[in-house]
Write a structure and sequence with these properties.
seven-stranded mixed beta sheet; Purple Acid Phosphatase, chain A, domain 2; 6 helices; single chain; eight-stranded mixed beta sheet; alpha/beta; globular
């Protein structure tokens, strides 16, 4: 009994640290812009859920996930040793023009005033093999009240990460609406409540940004105004909050990219998060899952929120490669 009480006390202490990790006006418009190795099992990744939420059954196959290394159990002050996850995601009726398309998903940088040495490796890897497109799902800065000291680092990092066809981003709850104009001046297209279409022949890769400063900014009227997904289109939704996948199911997204949770940031040795920061079940706050008839990609992020520590939850970036689903 004494051991059980001590374990409960330890969990409460970790939970208190987790609560400190994250504290807690949108432009209603949209724009259509056309722009002409080791393999290992990842805990919590790539699951079609049994007895999960609606739309958890019948996932497209096969889903292949690799990572270059196992990240450190403890990361303190720096994201050095971050995991580079490669995911080949099957898409039903994928147009031939989009076969093998490489999308780099980056989230929750939580930049502070100092340059993290991990950024140098990140930039070098992107420069060595640029992706086709880069998507950020919010929380560029950590300080919610004053982003000015972090902006020189954000500017240097974002402008150093280049892709073949461009970069899109949404804001997160740490960014605030006032960060929008400075970000829009960088090497990216801000997509809060906007739409971006990349076209090649008869194929379209469509990005839709859900405003991410606050869950209350969710605007179903705007999203429904975009209409049904057209034939030959792969629809990718960017949302800071993973649990908005429920409310936006009508979008018929092929990919739903999200961040915010940090995978818990502080987890038990089994990988179970102490704090979820989201209303989805704990098993959905990190990794790639087939739910609500879409692939939810819950990115654990590259940075730290609040306390600069990660425990049993290493930082990650995710490189997605589109593949045609078997039998589609």
């Amino acid at each position: 009994m004494a051991r059980i009480l001590e374990l409960r006390r330890s969990i409460r202490i970790l939970a208190d640290y987790g609560n400190k990790l994250q504290g807690k006006s949108v432009v209603r418009r949209w724009t259509d812009i056309s722009l002409m190795n080791s393999q290992m099992n990842l805990r919590g990744w790539g699951r079609a859920l049994d007895n999960g939420p609606p739309g958890s059954e019948g996932s497209p196959r096969p889903l292949i996930i690799r990572r270059d290394r196992t990240g450190p159990r403890l990361q303190l002050l720096t994201a050095k040793g971050f995991e580079w996850v490669e995911a080949e995601i099957p898409i039903r009726e994928l147009p031939p023009e989009l076969e093998g398309f490489r999308l780099l998903h980056v989230s929750d940088l939580h930049v502070r005033k100092a340059w993290d040495p991990a950024y140098d490796e990140f930039i070098a890897r992107v420069e060595a093999n640029p992706p086709d497109f880069i998507a950020y799902t919010g929380d560029f800065v950590d300080n919610k009240h004053d982003s000015r000291r972090a902006m020189p680092v954000v500017r240097r990092l974002v402008n150093s990460l280049k892709s073949r066809l461009g970069t899109a981003a949404i804001l997160g709850n740490h960014d605030g609406d006032l960060l929008g104009p400075p970000l829009a001046s960088l090497n990216l297209t801000l997509l809060d409540h906007r739409r971006l279409a990349l076209r090649s022949g008869s194929a379209t890769l469509e990005f839709i940004g859900i405003a991410g400063v606050d869950r209350k900014d969710f605007d179903p009227g705007f999203l429904r105004s975009l209409g049904r997904k057209e034939p030959g289109t792969v629809r990718v939704v960017l949302s800071h909050f993973p649990d908005l996948v429920r409310r936006s199911r009508f979008l018929e997204a092929d990919l739903f990219l999200a961040g915010h949770t940090h995978g818990g940031q502080i987890c038990l040795p089994t990988g179970i998060p102490i704090i979820r920061h989201d209303s989805l079940p704990a098993k959905l706050i990190s990794g790639i899952h087939w739910v609500y008839d879409t692939w939810l990609v819950a990115n654990p992020g590259l940075g730290f929120s609040g306390l600069p520590i990660r425990l049993f939850c290493p930082a990650q970036v995710i490189e997605i490669r589109l593949r045609k689903a078997g039998g589609s």
